[in-house]
What we know:
Elements: E1 4-12, E2 18-24, E3 29-33, H1 36-48, E4 54-60, H2 66-82, H3 84-95
Parallel strand pairs: 1-4
Antiparallel strand pairs: 1-2, 2-3
Amino acid sequence: MAGVKFEAVLxxxxxxxxxxxxxxxxxxxxxxxxxxxxxxxxVSEMGAEYGNDIEVVWSAAEDSNPVHMQxxxxxxxxxxxxxxxxxxxxxxxxxxxxxPESGLEGFNPNN
Length: 111
């Protein structure tokens, strides 16, 4: 079980697309991520403050569009495939209770 929960909320960005608001529930600090790459970078950056002992809890805002949810899922599957080897190393490291090195801590492409 992770030590710190981050909240990731899929939202309508107001110009026809989507964004993700990422919140550190301990601080509380929220950053807006306009794409999945920015989200991944922020999760890594913010998670480092906690030794990457984090869990990302996903939800969608009321104004989010089902099309945006599907777009995000597809992007996450693509991201997962692109970084599959790094993700596998991360999972192996966690199983071995090793210190993760990939910077993908807290990323859950299956939600």
